[in-house]
Amino acid sequence: MSLLLNHPAALKKAQAEMDASIGASRMVAADDVPRLSYLQCIINETLRLYPAAPLLLPHESSADCKVGGYDVPSGTMLIVNAYAIHRDPAVWEDPAAFRPERFEDGKADGLLLMPFGMGRRRCPGETLALQTVGVVLGTLVQCFDWDRVDGAEVDMTEGVGITMPKAVALEAVCRPRAAMGGQLQ
Ligand code: HEM
């Protein structure tokens, strides 16, 4: 929501997708999420810029191995900096920019996006998490018009932690959309 408030054109585009694919006679449901392609692009782009677990979880090598030419002995703690990988300018064009369109039409397929980790210890809750985020964000976009408080840019400064909190909690103004009145009673 913070990124959408700072990028009103993306918010309008998400709302238009919601209106075209679902309309106002019912609220977005879990099985709508897979076909809301722009909403998915927004979620991917948000998890790219602000992965909830920026260093994933610590891993330990179970055998001697080589990673990127470095010898890694068995029993070494390995930390993967997904935050840096997601902002690598060699991979992502204009990496600091919020641009959900970079994920449209499979354009980012094959690029290293790993907010849920990779391999055998990848997050087992990924499907549930993406479905839940899709329904919650989709509902907020479908049912309300959003504005920043006094028009001021939302502060995106990152706080400190194993997960990445916002340093300044989000405050925003929302108004029920007239067309959704029937659903919000
Ligand atoms: C947006 C939401 C979520 C994000 C961004 C997320 C991200 C992650 C990440 C980065 C890891 C570590 C992967 C690695 O180090 O390779 C992880 C592990 C894990 N996640 Fe999630 N997760 C989310 C939601 C969930 C949910 C909803 C569940 C359960 C219902 C869940 C259960 C787990 C478990 C059990 C592990 C440990 C897996 C293992 O070590 O084998 N996560 N998650």
TrEMBL record:
One of its GO terms (molecular function) is iron ion binding. Its cofactor is heme. Transmembrane segments: none annotated. Heme binds at residue 123. The keyword Transferase does not apply. It holds the Pfam family p450. The keyword Ion transport does not apply. Keywords: Heme, Iron, Membrane, Metal-binding, Monooxygenase, Oxidoreductase, Transmembrane, Transmembrane helix. InterPro entries: Cyt_P450 (IPR001128), Cyt_P450_CS (IPR017972), Cyt_P450_E_grp-I (IPR002401), Cyt_P450_sf (IPR036396), Plant_Cytochrome_P450_Monoox (IPR050651). PANTHER family: CYTOCHROME P450 82C3-RELATED, CYTOCHROME P450 FAMILY PROTEIN, EXPRESSED. Belongs to the cytochrome P450 family. This is Cytochrome P450. It comes from Triticum turgidum subsp. durum. The lineage of its organism: Eukaryota, Viridiplantae, Streptophyta, Embryophyta, Tracheophyta.
